[in-house]
Amino acid sequence: MAIVSRGFRGRRTADPRLPPGQYLEHGFPVLSAGPTPRTDLATWTFSIDGPQGPRATWTWDELTALPAEDVVRDIHCVTKWTKLDTSWRGVSLDRLLDAVEVDPAEQYALAHCDGGYTTNVPLADLRDGKAWIAYQYDGAPLAPEHGGPARLLVPHLYFWKSAKWVRRIELLTSDEWGFWERLGYHEHGDPWKEQRYWGD
Question: By its UniProt entry, which Pfam families does this protein fall under (predicted)?
Fold first, then answer.
């Protein structure tokens, strides 16, 4: 059962930055499908994998030593809240994907996380400045309840695609649904098209 913080109800406004059906949220609600993992940074790794296993792996020190980007983006939760101008710091997926050989047939990705959570994302949604491995929020280390030490950040899609506690990205030649997608959530999740559930 999902764990949800208080504060989901909000007043909808005519702000043009709100996708259809969303309301403006000033807090940062916490949603989790299970307990919050606690990770030892001394043993933490992140990898990009293919069918034969890891193609590149970074320790925590190696990942955070890479050139980082400060990112300000609006985020949109499928539970209908939107938070504007959220501030993140992390490493672009463009930089990480450039470190591996990607087969042209690999057009899909599956994010794997601590706790067993997975979510699928077309590879095109991780490229061209659209996605990051984020490890800071609002100038501080990313809190565990918000996905720390690091989460996938794909802000142009509903926020369940920005998988918490991410540990690896698996490159695939065919789409494979993740945790929420198998339970009825949309395979893509574009908030401007209200792609919340199967058939949307």
Answer: Oxidored_molyb
> How many structural domains are present in the chain?
1
Tell me whether residue 5 is in a domain: no
Give the tens place of pLDDT for each residue, 50-84: 988 899 999 999 999 999 999 999 999 999 999 99
How many angstroms separate the most distant Cα atoms in the chain?
49
Note the pTM of the prediction, 2 decimals.
Answer: 0.90
pLDDT for 170-184, tens place per residue?
Answer: 999 999 999 999 999
Partners of 168 in the β-ladder: 47, 112
Residues of the domain holding 136: 48-69+88-193
With respect to residue 29, please indicate whether it lies within any of the assigned structural domains. no
Task: Indicate which CATH number applies to the domain containing 181.
Answer: 3.90.420.10
- pLDDT value of residue 38: 86
Residue 107 within any structural domain of the chain: yes
Q: How far is the C-alpha of 196 from the C-alpha of 79, rounded, in Å? A: 9
Q: Binning pLDDT at 50, 70 and 90, where does residue 36 land?
A: confident
